[in-house]
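This part of the workshop introduces the protein records we will be handling. A record pairs a protein's sequence with a compact description of its fold. As an example, a complete record with its sequence and its structure tokens follows.

_____
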Amino acid sequence: WNELSLQPFLHLNKRFMLGIQRDVTEPHAKYLWRELLERALDQSSESILITDNQKSDNPIVYANSAFTKVTGYANHEIIGKNCRFLQGPDTDASTVARVREAIKRSEPIAVELLNYRKNGEPFWNQFSATPVQDPKTKQITHFISVQFEHPTIINPMTSFMNIFKQYS
């Protein structure tokens, strides 16, 4: 890839064009790579979040379309907020504490977690959070979280009640 800029100028009452050519192959390749990564994240069938570990409360800075589809929340409702809005009355506090501690220690973690959609409906998901390190400073700047909804993980009491209702 080349970038060409032309500039007309006069010299001794004659018109000339000054042309400067610059090789932009590497910057263009980087742009295409970033564009591909952004499309891949957004089009993933798994819910993906990126949070900012440098800000207080680790707020969401990116949510892909699968996340908004699964949870029912629009991007403008969640950007800048901590993920705890997904927790509800039956979310296991000890599991949440394990996640919080792993993030505090800047360590990856994977757990099964009961979360809640915007409409209040609970859903189980396999949740993982992985620290993202700045290569220059070695600081953990962000976390990337992938959530895979588990429709097959069933609360045993709910299953029992559904079977009981079928045969009553």
